[in-house]
Amino acid sequence: MEKNQSLHAYIKEELLNRIKSNEYKKGEKIPPELELCKDFDVSRTTVRTALNQLTLEGYLVRQQGKGTFVADQKVKQTLSQTVKRYSDQIAVQGKKAEITLIDIHVVPANEILQQSLDVSINDPIQRIERVRKANGEPTQYEIAYIPWDIAPGITKEHAETSLYASLKEKFHVHIAKTTEQIEITLADERSCMHLGCEVGTPCFYIETIAEDDKGKKVEFSRSFFRGDKTNFMIERNYQLGE
Fold this sequence. Notes:
Blueprint: H1 7-20, H2 33-40, H3 44-56, E1 60-63, E2 67-70, E3 75-78, H4 86-91, E4 97-108, H5 111-117, E5 124-134, E6 137-147, H6 156-159, H7 163-171, E7 175-186, H8 189-195, E8 202-212, E9 217-226, E10 230-233
Parallel strand pairs: 3-10
Antiparallel strand pairs: 1-2, 4-5, 5-6, 6-9, 7-8, 8-9
């Protein structure tokens, strides 16, 4: 145990190592609390604190009356430069991707959209509300805004495939750059309704502004990702000598 590390943090780390090393396999029931208490020579309260944190973070799942089990692996998504669609990123993980359109309609631009999309107040903006799933489980709730004059008449078919691919193929809009800001937030009533989680569940929150090859802002989106179902990979390439 590292210096200044609490007992429950040490146990959590040890259990997480067992999960990631596949000693505790996906779907497998982990040892009961009393057995873990003997294993680590600690109190039940200490073990329970570690298990609660691993459950909150999505590594374990509790089944009433049955015990605690190793959860399915989190959905991995790439934040660094990638041309892969969501469905492709999910497919290589052995999961089936699904995008469901909740609602699409035109709204007048407000101050936030004016700043984010370089449009004028009251310009027509298409508001596209979607949920992404992996193996039927919601992982991302997204609201995207695209000016009408950029891609007039976005349809359900466009929204339930790859929106960026549809912009390119149907509207000749090429996404050349995205700027993303990521924060940690807690799910509110609206997001948890679509993500199938409880109010207050930790989520990643990402705001994205997409620009075309001329530097024009063509999309602004707000996305909520379940923290217990998703993690992100960031890959950086450096020039020699840096």
